[in-house]
């Protein structure tokens, strides 16, 4: 029987939430708080979760912590949400993480961009093919941040691995996205706007049907309002949400996105939902900048 991955494809055409990973005072992963944050998302109507994403500080977690985060997510979701597990690093590590996700019952993995100073386009295909072939039962979603990658390379990968079903596209260029998607096959993949709400309207206009979100940790209703407007083709309504979240996302994107996770955790801390601590190379916001983030979070309908 050929796997069609229709359930997984549907899950990607949505708000793809990237949960934060909360840390306790001693620096360890705070499991109970993480569960509470997940439950808050699920209860609000979020149905797709990505443990071990960038907003979850993937690269700052140990292998054991990444496994634990995956386990907590699958346990807490309990079938109430689709799980897209972030995997990456070297090929054996990524494959081991994908196999672990499969053992737990997750049905999709997102492959972080290869972390290497020298990435050839053919090597990009080889990297993802090795991971996808190890878990043919799972839907595989490459995370594309390389503006040089050609859409034809994604098509080549999917020819070899039919379980490559979607793409998290995170190059900040809507025209490049439109061309990449068409060169790869617009209808062949589920296109997820990987730069979240700020880019969602422009990317939806070019063919995306889902978007990732870190903001959703703070205000799930805001992200859901955005996806509902975009699904309806109501770009006026979508841009009203865009205006609502603009400053928050500008703070996250400033200085090369240095405070991308920091701002989200600061907002959650202002609401009493988790500690503000992040791990190096990120840093918590200084006292002088916290009030603005707290005011934004307080102004949303949480």
UniProtKB/TrEMBL annotation:
<keyword id="KW-0456">Lyase</keyword>
<dbReference type="Pfam" id="PF00701">
    <property type="entry name" value="DHDPS"/>
</dbReference>
<comment type="similarity">
    <text>Belongs to the DapA family.</text>
</comment>
<dbReference type="InterPro" id="IPR013785">
    <property type="entry name" value="Aldolase_TIM"/>
</dbReference>
<dbReference type="InterPro" id="IPR002220">
    <property type="entry name" value="DapA-like"/>
</dbReference>
<protein>
    <submittedName>
        <fullName>Dihydrodipicolinate synthase family protein</fullName>
    </submittedName>
</protein>
